[in-house]
Specification:
- The protein contains 14 helices and no strands.
- By secondary structure, it is an all-alpha fold.
Length: 296
Amino acid sequence: CISIGTFGSMLAIWINMPAPYLTGSALSVGLASLSGLSVKLSNPIKILCFILIGIILGSNLDTSLLDAIWQWPKSIATLAISLTLTLFICQKILIYGFNFSKKSALLASSPGHLTFTISYAESEKLNSVQVAIVQTIRIFSLTLLVPLILLMFGTDLTEFSTEAEKILSFETIVVLVIFSWLSGWVLKRLKVPASYLIAGFLICGFSQLSSLTSGVSPDWITNPSFVVVGALIGIQFNGFSHDQLKGSLLSGLTVTLVAIIISLVTALSLSSISNLPFTQSFLALSPGGIETISAI
């Protein structure tokens, strides 16, 4: 699975796709899944990947985050408006346009944690396959479309990959991974979604803000982590028949498009009233799972 994702990433780099390590891996593993190949990732690799993504995010924190605290209420209010509109409009589309039940439509429209929504659908005796396909199509489409949308709005994606003056050492990363794994284990027992990713972010973020560590994650950590996240997205197509996909493809693409439009409008509004960069606003409001949007 990782070898397929790595090949897809290299191909994506060659043809100059945006966010190649993520999009190339997702596309290649997704196609492999749809072709009937058995593609899997072991649980320890998944956990390590989520921890590293959290550390990558946390390593970019500094005291300027606290300096911008006055902008938080505007951001939270805009997020609430965007989420409410997305849930309401997409649910109505699925109910009246694609004959979803009310509860299934709500779960399929929820831009949240894929595993949680599917588990809840199964516990409520809903059509979990229908919900899973729409959610998977949404995440897969966002992985491919969000970088393209950012390029269309003039975002220079290379500006986020410039070399930093200082990077985290191997020893520091090992210590952060250990503490993040322990914290993630606790959060998972408390049923916190994306527990290991959140743990990595909190542990590394705290160490950065308290000056215990300083520096960003090196490329040899960042790029392989994105390949694994892309592979995890592609794996979601495992087990779906072609008939099931055809039946839910249009509904999944429709609600994804509507959700992206809502995110674009609210992101533009947020950036105009708060002076936050459009790129950050759009990524924060994009209707994806935390693992996917964090990686993008």
